[in-house]
Amino acid sequence: MTETKYLKGFPLIISTIAVSLATFLIVLDYSIANIAIPYIAGDLAASPDQGIYVITAFAVGSAISLPLSGWLTKRVGLIRLIVLSLLGFVALSWVCGVSISLTMLVIARFLQGLAAGPLIPLSQTLTIQMFPPEKRNSALAFWSTVVIVAPVLGPVLGGWISYDIHWSWIFFINIPLGLFAAAVIHFFLKAFETPREKVSTDWIGLLLLAIAVTCLQFLLDKGEQYDWLNSPIIRTCAATSLICFVFLVAYELTRKAPLLELRLLKIPSYTLSIIFIATMYAVYFGGVVLVPLWLQEYMGYTPIWAGIAVAPIGIIPMLFSAPIARLVNKIGAILPLGISLIFFALSSFDGAFFNTDVDLFHVGISRFLFGLGLLFFLVPLFNLSVRDIPQDKLPSSTGMFHFVRAMMGGVGTSVFTTLWVRRSAFHHANLAAQVVPARDPVDNFYGQLDQIGITGEKAQTIVNDMIDKQASVLGINDCFYLMGWIFIAMLAILLIGKRKKRRLA
Q1: CATH architecture of 9-199
Q2: What predicted TM-score, i.e. pTM, was given to this entire model?
Q3: Between 455 and 271, the higher pLDDT residue
Q4: C-alpha span between 55 and 218 (Å, rounded)
């Protein structure tokens, strides 16, 4: 793009819709298959444990290509890369839908992830460039709403399609929408094309990145199953991933034309945004995964109702992101970030008091409070992440930013799922130790069961199910309690950083 010409009227509206739609499809595909795994596994003669590779393959593919966004943009051009990525994503969505074996589907999902990876950071870059500076926060607000809403809608949409239609349609729906987005971007946004550059292929960096990401993703997905570091496989993956990441950083810092622009971390505002998105997304995705899982496994919710219970997370950001963007323009990013962390902490501590009688309304209120936090968090953080970045470095900076976001989402999911399982087992053991026949309440309960003809193993099963349910909610309480204190710590870091900045001034 040689001169600054911003879109107006219909071209701006249709282009904004297309770019946001592209983002929506990619973010949606991270979560839409989660609920469909049992249907996919059953249809393709695989176990649910094997079916999880459908999710892992997409995550690994996208994690590899995400940080390469800047490098690929130099080689291909911004608009060409977005269009080619969309077309590749659409074609591979069709392959996923017609897969006749789990192996075919996993390979297609990996390639689909490779194609999809650059689209999230590049759509953010394009959104910034399409709007004049005074409207960029509002544009980023709309874009961030898409990023928030898609993961929440994914399980609901995936559950409905898999149950009422067929799991293949969770992939087929990408085809018409993806083609529409690609066509609009190609015809309306040619003026934003960037020139191609002759950039050497960093094969060593690519190899190190691919190995590091693949090992890390396997570790996160299978760590609990293999008992973490007690397993030689997990220890090997952890060591390999760590060594490759260390060598990758050291190697990239020595190159004149690096695959990853790690020198951008010298910019304080960018580094702060990376730290905050990493911490927050780990906690956010931990909650997004745990709450529906708990509601379905122990509280009797269907996939659709579990999705509805967490849907309030996206309602407030969807309705009020634009006013927050105007507020950020006036007062800056720090105060809204502080407010967001307070709402996150309130939501988490509220979840720490869930019990087995909690209803849909109470769960929804807790998620609503978290949505208020997101409203004040993502818009200022996205603004902070690009505020001091040179225009030509935007693809690289957004690529690394979203790579960290995606990987930490996986880390948070794994850590909090493991914590929930282990704390639930701890509480189950403690509760079971108290259920002894010598205690009057226990004797009375067994007596009530005996009066309606339930004795022996059947009575023991009912009691054990009750203990399971109580232990699961106590485990959830522990997870939310930890989340709350993490947000308090983040708030303290923010306040300390602000005070230091004032002293230096």
Answers
A1: Up-down Bundle (1.20)
A2: 0.82
A3: 271
A4: 11
